[in-house]
Amino acid sequence: MPPPKILIQLDTDPQPSSFDSIVAADAGVDHLLRYCSITPQNMVPILHGAMFTRGGDSLKNTAIFIGGSDITAGEKLLQVARETFFGPVRVSVMLDSGGCNTTATAAVLAAANHTSLAGTKALVLAATGPVGARVCRLLAGQGAYVLAGSRREDRAAMVCNHITESVPDAHVSPTQIDSLDRLQQAMEGVQVVISAGSEGIQLLPAAVREAASDLRVVIDLNAVPPLGVEGIEVHDRAVPYGSAVCYGAIGVGGTKMKIHKAAVRSLFERSDLCLDAEEIFQRAQSSD
Fold first, then answer.
1. Which of 13, 136, 193, 217 pairs with 211 at a CA distance of 20 to 30 A?
2. Which CATH class is domain 6-95?
3. pLDDT in tens, 78-92
């Protein structure tokens, strides 16, 4: 009988995410070990515990999930894991801070169902948040021309610079959107809009959306009223509004949950997986 599947949930926040814990249970994990307030300094002993308690093929039955609301902190933990593992002494690890990678994957796959992303002009609203930044990165990786929208251009520029470090041929530009006029200008020629703003903040008024004649796909990832995109419903899934098909947060959420569970399950297939945005996207894309 194989050893039980143990998932070590490392959360950068003061309280481990109940959402991530429930998804882990639903994905079939036998035992879940939850740790909070994880930093690069206190992470290594936990990694060593995962690496040295099992050997050989049994290592694949231990895996690590990195979560929390801060994607920058999560990326630092992922880097520590990469630097701590050596040779075959390693376990699989997944990064999904704030649901960034699984939610972004679901959104980009939804958009790809309706238009070819290569060469498409896409606007990401609230691009500096964990989900928005990953949406920009995945869209750029698919060959889209991405406008990273934010109220502050300097923060959007930081996201763009970070993306070009991992996607060298990315076409991604910081776009300051701090007024209705600038939003209308940014929408010119845009075919895909993905709104990744905080809960209860409207980012795209209905009038602006309806006036955008080139628009083909609109996706809103905010489920708390007022929604990020005015005039669509939270449960919408490929619902036509004018020239565009629209998705609400729950309309995308079912796919996100499937992707999240499948990614967790895949951690126990082998001991050397490292699942970040691109790896999760590629796995979800191939399973469609």
1. 136
2. alpha beta
3. 999 999 999 999 999
